From TrEMBL:
Biased composition range(s): Polar residues: 33-50
Disordered: annotated segments: 33-60
Name listed for the protein in its UniProt record: BTB domain-containing protein
Organism name: Macrolepiota fuliginosa MF-IS2
Length: 339
């Protein structure tokens, strides 16, 4: 897309020069439609008691301008007023600060800005970018270290925005960290999109995000992993995910193996009688270990092992069984759940 001519730029500035005349209430699309007629004036909103105004078709000579409801001319996002306008691929304007875009960019914001932008009058203040406004909105929120959660961007939009950060010279590894709003927003999607989020984190080496997401993949069947997803995850993080599953399965078998500790023989319960509990434990634990799932819950363990007490007449054997189950639950709870 070519840059607008100076005449076009002056016209756009005239349409949106007075932010106080606009409705900048936040919306999910992050845009406000401004309608201007031949007299270059923004219509005065109707009084609240007048009811809902009738929407007419735009008259001849009317121009519609879409402006971000966060990055608009009068937004107090920086100590200085915005000096650069980004035009998204769908025609939405974003008013930003060149100094903020250049602060952490290694390629001068995809080489759209000079290293030293200087005064606005010495350069073209309007830049066209190939991103859709929904993606650009997220990218700019990340750069400005602001939360965009109130827009409820779909998860694919977040993934696209983070994936495109390197194109503008920003390192996701340094900008998507646990203390940032984008990290928290991405992690909130882990329960619904664990594999996709893990793949995103792995492909960009976002270690903390990958670790936090991996606990949501304990129930994922690794055999169903596609070649495309495995390639996106990469060998290092794929190995870590497999080792997480295999390690927990081995740990489960290891903590299940020891039977309840026998008590001293009594006239009504000698060692031979206690072998019944040992055999019953071996059968029940083998049932759990046969399909040793890395996401096995402690409640499933207890529901499988506690019924053994119903067949024990000795109170000391019952106590030994309860202690063994309690110890098993504790041991399984401390087994590592992340990569």
């Amino acid at each position: 897309m070519e840059h607008s001519t100076p005449t076009d730029w002056e016209s756009v500035l005239q349409f949106v020069a007075d932010p106080l005349a606009l409705d900048f209430s936040e919306r999910a699309t992050d845009t406000t439609m401004l309608q201007t007629g031949g007299n270059n004036q923004v219509p005065t909103p109707p009084q609240s008691h007048d009811g809902t105004p009738v929407t007419d078709e735009p008259t001849e000579g009317t121009t519609l301008v879409s402006v971000s409801t966060t990055f608009y001319p009068g937004a107090q996002l920086h100590e200085l007023p915005p000096d650069t306008v980004l035009l998204a691929s769908d025609g939405v304007f974003f008013y930003v600060h060149a100094s903020v875009l250049l602060a952490s960019s290694s390629n001068h914001f995809s080489n759209l800005l000079p290293p030293d932008p200087g005064p606005c009058k010495d350069r073209d203040p309007m830049l066209t970018v190939p991103e859709h406004s929904t993606v650009l909105n997220v990218i700019l929120h990340i750069i400005y270290d602001m939360s965009c959660a109130h827009y409820s961007p779909p998860f694919p939009t977040l993934v696209t925005a983070v994936d495109h950060l390197p194109a503008y010279g920003f390192s996701p590894k340094h900008i998507v960290v646990p203390s940032t709003p984008i990290y928290a927003l991405l992690l909130s999607h882990a329960p619904l999109f664990p594999l996709e989020l893990y793949a995103l984190a792995s492909s960009l080496d976002l270690y903390e995000l990958a670790v936090s997401t991996s606990s949501h993949l304990l129930s994922f069947p690794l055999a169903t992993l596609t070649d495309e997803m495995a390639e996106r995850i990469g060998p290092v993080y794929l190995k870590r995910l497999f080792f997480l599953h295999f390690g927990r399965s081995d740990a489960l078998k290891r903590v299940l193996l020891p039977p309840p500790h026998p008590h001293a023989p009594t006239p009504w319960c000698d060692f031979d009688e206690q072998k019944k509990l040992t055999r019953a434990w071996a059968l029940a634990s083998a049932y759990l270990a046969w399909d040793a799932r890395p996401d096995l819950s402690t409640s499933t363990m207890e529901s499988a092992l506690r019924p053994l007490a119903e067949h024990l007449a000795c109170e000391q054997c019952q106590e030994a069984l309860r202690d063994r189950i309690k110890n098993l639950v504790v041991q399984w709870s401390v087994v590592k759940r992340t990569i």
